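just leaving the lab so this will be short. what follows is a protein written twice so to speak, once as letters and once as structure tokens for the fold. can you read through it and tell me how you think this chain folds. anything you notice is useful, everything is just below:
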Amino acid sequence: MITNRLLIIFLITTNIHLAFCQVEDKFSILQPLKFEKVKNSIYEKDSLVILKEKIIFDKEVFRDSLAQDALRTHNISVFYYTNKNSKNPYNLYQWTAPVIVHFDKSIPKYLKENLITFIKNFENIPNLTISITKNIDDANYLIKSSDEEFNLDSYKFKSEEEKEKFAFNNGSYKMTKGGFSRIKSCVLKINTNHDKKTIQEKSLKQLFFLSLGRFFPIRIFKDKTSLISPIYENSDTLSKHDLLILKIHYNYIFHESINSTEYNKILSTYLSDL
């Protein structure tokens, strides 16, 4: 009986992992990727990161009552149950230069204004700076509309409504990376032909949030207030849980590629007194 249960658990876990491997192909980090018809030195070189002699964490973040739950969600969303011994381990990805967003003229005004308002939620996150520019030559993040149909076949949905609302069925993003898993630039495409504005707004917010750390939406996470959840509901504010995820993710800027085994070892070393 125990053996059978273990076999069932193994098969379920394997199928979920394979599904997310397929999902990653839809919005994974690709390189090289440059904005069409734009020559910008930002994309030609690695983002600048200042090397520190030792790792220094802001421990106050981890003292929050919700920190442990946020840390668990963060680690699953970033590393997706992989470690250094996995066949395809996922690393932690960070923006190490300010994120400078440019909206293509194809983005409707209401959608642009909605995201700009939402971005204000990110103002007090150490090591993460986001701004808006009208000059594409100054940008390293482009948001534009697309007429293409986005359909994530590898993801299982409980209903057609849930499928319709899923962010990656309404848009996608592609990144370029530098050394040590640094995010250099990003192009986010959103289908603006959808007749429901709330789905457009919700999808754009979620895709933007996920692109700040190459976060994966977690299928088993049912908190509708969280942008990590595939059933996230539209909101103008950032939940405390998601705010903690970003503060944990950008607590320290790493200058080397970090997998989950290394990350957990670092946390246990520098946060041992908590």
Strands lie at 94-95, 99-103, 130-132, 141-145, 171-177, 182-190. Helices lie at 2-27, 59-62, 67-79, 109-119, 160-165, 197-211, 240-249, 260-270. The radius of gyration is 19 Å.
